[in-house]
Design a protein that fits this description.
Shape: globular
Strand content: 35-45%
Order of helices and strands: HHEEEHEE
Radius of gyration: 15 Å
Number of helices: 3
CATH superfamily: Nucleic acid-binding proteins
Length: 137
């Protein structure tokens, strides 16, 4: 079995892997992607790229159409905010893809770090398998 097949088998059978996080296997192929744990080192307003497995998609009724996406990598979670127009532009990718790559502006306020999404794309690499996430319905 290849590494990708082994990780995929872990997720298919157990819903997780006993090894390192799948993003650790592909980090070398994504040099421009920030690790979640390094986002606190960025500057407010700086453009960043994050990627990882979608662990949560939220669209609260009280958020006026804003969507919140949590991406998990090998170091932690990056929280992304998607405006209503961006959600409409990327609706299918956001709703259907198990792993995403998001480019946006880093926002750090009162110790809270998130990314305001500009561009959203599927992250399709064999070593990053589909995982289940918690989603709005």
């Amino acid at each position: 079995m290849s590494l990708g097949e082994r990780v995929q088998a872990d997720f298919s059978l157990m819903g997780l892997t006993a090894g390192v996080h799948p993003m650790a296997h592909v980090r070398h192929a994504l040099p421009e992607v920030w690790r979640a744990s390094d986002l606190v080192l960025g500057k407010n307003g700086e453009e960043v790229v994050v990627a990882g497995s979608v662990i949560c998609r939220q669209r609260p009724g009280t958020a006026k159409g804003f969507v919140f996406i949590s991406l998990e990598d090998e170091t932690g979670v990056a929280n992304c905010v998607v405006t209503p127009p961006k959600f409409e532009a990327y609706r299918l990718v956001i709703n259907l893809e198990p792993a995403l790559r998001i480019t946006g502006k880093l926002q750090i306020q009162h110790g809270v770090v998130h990314i305001k999404a500009h561009t959203i794309a599927a992250l399709r690499l064999d070593e990053v398998p589909a995982q289940s996430s918690h989603n709005f319905h």
